[in-house]
């Protein structure tokens, strides 16, 4: 019979399958294969109006990120206030909301291993003035002005990334977004 296997052949496959599986898994672990992670990236109004979008996207792609989703949105006062709700008691809150509603923003979902920490490293410190000295090759050094108008946003944790991605790309269970990043 064509296509049939003998009991001896089946036994041979069964005997060799576990060692081959172990070798395969070891090769994956030793080559550094890691879980891919997603984060939210936002180019703020000053980044879009300053025509930095293409430079920022180029830096994203050159740093090994995949852009999974992107959209340009214009936040109204209610949505900007909701996005930055954890800052509502701070003195800069009204100014931040006014700034974030001053023009459109480009929101992206980025993916790669360690996406959150790699994106935060690429964007640099929150205060763009400090970034120009301490991280001159960062995105904020390239196009940010200060700690509020710092050109880009990045999620600060897996939890924040999940909430922020849901905020812009949909998940009816998410209402409040908390993060420590402006």
UniProtKB/TrEMBL annotation:
ATP binds at residues 44, 92, 120, 126, 140, 150. It comes from the Eukaryota. Residues 1-33 form the signal peptide. It catalyses: a 2'-deoxyribonucleoside 5'-diphosphate + ATP = a 2'-deoxyribonucleoside 5'-triphosphate + ADP; a ribonucleoside 5'-diphosphate + ATP = a ribonucleoside 5'-triphosphate + ADP. It is found in: Cell projection, Cilium. InterPro entries: NDK-like_dom, NDK-like_dom_sf, Nucleoside_diP_kinase. GO terms for molecular function: ATP binding; hydrolase activity; nucleoside diphosphate kinase activity. The keyword Kinase applies. The keyword Disulfide bond does not apply. This is Nucleoside diphosphate kinase-like domain-containing protein. It comes from Eragrostis curvula (weeping love grass).
